[in-house]
Each structure stands twice: as C-alpha cells, then as structure tokens.
Amino acid sequence: MLVTGSILLCQLLMLLCPVYAGFYGSDTAVINLTPKTFKSEIYDTNYTSVVEFYAEWCGHCKNLRPHYTKAAKSLKGVAKVAAVRCDDDSNQPLCARYNVKGYPTLKLFRPNVKVPSSPLIEDYDGGRTAKAIVDTVLSKISNKVRRLKAEDVQPWIDESNVPKVLLFHNDANTPPMYKGLAIDYAGSINFGIVRKSEKLASKEYGVTKFPTIVIITTDEEGDHRHIYSGELKKEPLYEYLSAFGTPVEGTRAPKKQKKAKQASKPLQHEEL
Ligand SMILES: *[C@@H]1O[C@H](CO)[C@@H](O)[C@H](O)[C@H]1NC(C)=O
C-alpha cells in the first residue's frame, strides 16, 4: 500500500518516479509464475527448477530476495529459478496445491526421465544463501552429456545421424553451461565430453588446447568436423548451434523463423 500510494503521489505531482518493478522485476533472472504459466515452465521441460512461494510482506522473503536473485543469475541457462507470489489472490490455487504453509517455501522440481511432464518434487531445506541454493540445484540437474573414452568417440558418432558436439575438456566434470545446451538441443544435437587424458582422441581431432569444441556432422560423403572458435559462453554457443539443430528449449527458442534464416547464411566456422 505504501509503495502504491507513493507512486500515485509522485505521478500526481508529475515527478519522475521510480517504477515499482515487482518483488522480482524483469531486471532479474527470476521467472514469475502464474497458474497459466506454471505447467509449461516447470512441468513441460527437461530443466530442473527451484520455485519459491513467497509473500511480499514477509520479512524472511525480503531477506532471501538478494540471495535468490543472485542464484537466478548464476543458474541462468542451466536451471530455472522461479517464484510464485502467494499474496496475489490469482496465485492462491498454486500455493494451496503445493501445500504452502509458511513463507518463503522453496521446492525443487526435477524432470522425470521415465515420465515426461511429471517432475519429481521435493522440499528445499538447505541454506538460504545463493551458494547453497546454486550448489543444491546443480546437484539435481539432468546430464544429457555422454562421457566418452577415446575408443568410444567413433561408435558414438556412428550411432545416429544427428549432429554431435564434442567437448575436449581438462577434466571429467561437465561444465553446467554445457549441460544446459544439451537440454536445449535434446533430440536434435547429441553432446559428448572427452577429457584431456584421452590423448588418442585429441590427437585424432588435432586438438591441442582445452577446452575445445568440435561439431561433427555426417552426410553421404562422411563425417565433417567444425571447430568452434567463438566465445565459450552459453549465448554465443546457443546461437552458433542453431545452424546445426533446432533448439526445443532455451531463452530464444520461439524465434525459430529468424533462426532458419540465419542458418542459411554462410556458416562462420572453419572446417578441419
Ligand atoms: C526432453 O528430452 C528428450 C530427449 O532426451 C526430448 O526428446 C524431449 O523433446 C525433451 N523435452 C523437452 C520439453 O524439451
């Protein structure tokens, strides 16, 4: 009330007023959920999500806000960080359905590999810091990236006709960003990781620095290798890979028509 009142007042006085952007404004990476969007965002996805049920007046929610905002920023493109405002009447059915008794309540939604659109739901009882939330969520994300030994690489390529993305990495830990890309391109591009110590693989592909990303496509003439030379960040990689496959998820997935046009432009990669 106080906030609304003072905004009204400064609008009346025609002063430049700060716009109240909401508890989690569009300048944050937190997804604000409603009964209309909950299912598509949280159920129909291969992403793991954390959902906070909160009320704007609640003190613990205000304390959590900067941590939750920070967690959302660092999990962007890797997991979904979302919130339901329970002191908004239209969201009440959601808060009742998930049996929310106090604020904030945090729940984890993990995709069910056996039954699509039927996530496994559990309470989050961990620490209320960005780090604790991020670490817990990271431990729950699904990994569609195949870990390969040198001798597994060619059989993996021959397994299917879809393009492959092969990451040559220093160690065996798959970077979360890479797991996110594998979720975005599920069914369209297969992802594999081979570690530096698999020397025969890096020799075969002429890879001398780590990490290196090689995209492998197959046609009648055989396998073609393309070395990715752009920035090792999710956005540019997501963009680059749209020339090879169709993303099913991801922030800009709906703009498919634009993507198709971009894909027909000359590809900015070097062929090996
Ligand atoms: C989830 O992943 C599977 C392949 O693992 C894919 O077939 C399906 O389309 C994906 N679902 C969504 C909603 O992206």
Which properties best describe this structure?
272 residues; alpha/beta; Glutaredoxin; five-stranded mixed sheet; 10 helices; 11 strands; elongated; disordered C terminus; binds 2-acetamido-2-deoxy-beta-D-glucopyranose
Walk me through the structure.
The chain is α/β, with parallel strands linked by helices and 272 residues long. It folds into two domains: 23-140, 3-Layer(aba) Sandwich (Glutaredoxin); 145-265, Glutaredoxin. It is 32% helix and 21% strand. It is built from ten helices and eleven strands. Strands 6-8-7-9-10-11 form a six-stranded mixed β-sheet. A hairpin with a 2-residue loop joins strand 9 and strand 10 (222-227). Helix 3 (59-75) crosses helix 5. It starts with a helix and ends with a strand. The model is unreliable at 253-272 (pLDDT under 50).
Please write the string of helix (H) and strand (E) elements. HEHEHEHEEHEHEHEHEEHHE
Q: What structural class results from the helix and strand content?
A: alpha/beta
Beta percentage is: 15-25%
Number of domains: 2
CATH architecture group name of the largest domain: 3-Layer(aba) Sandwich
Number of helices: 10
Number of strands: 11
SSE topology sketch:
Elements: H1 2-12, E1 31-32, H2 38-43, E2 49-54, H3 59-75, E3 80-85, H4 92-97, E4 105-110, E5 120-123, H5 130-138, E6 145-148, H6 153-158, E7 164-169, H7 176-184, E8 190-195, H8 199-204, E9 212-219, E10 222-227, H9 234-241, H10 256-264, E11 270-271
Parallel strand pairs: 1-3, 2-3, 6-8, 7-8
Antiparallel strand pairs: 2-4, 4-5, 7-9, 9-10, 10-11
Bound molecules: 2-acetamido-2-deoxy-beta-D-glucopyranose (NAG).
